[in-house]
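hey so i finally got around to running the thing on that chain from the lab meeting. sorry it took forever, my laptop kept dying and i had to restart like 3 times. anyway pasting the input first so we r on the same page abt which one it is
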Amino acid sequence: MSDSSLSKDRRVKTRIYAAAAVPEYWVVDVNAGTIEVRTQPRGDGYGQLRIARPGQTIRLQAFPDVEIAVSDVVR
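ok and heres what got predicted. didnt touch it at all, straight out
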């Protein structure tokens, strides 16, 4: 969950997780009420970014049968 650390989560942590080949990285932007889902790690970034908003759902790559409603995470 990001409020004050949003910039660091988007820039610094994204590079660290991508370099470690973490397959899926989420940033929850509490101010915007969105979840940024990054997939397809490539070197120091991710090839795919999806911004999910309330009313939408997210399926985890590792557990595709698990569906999470954005509105259950951000209010």
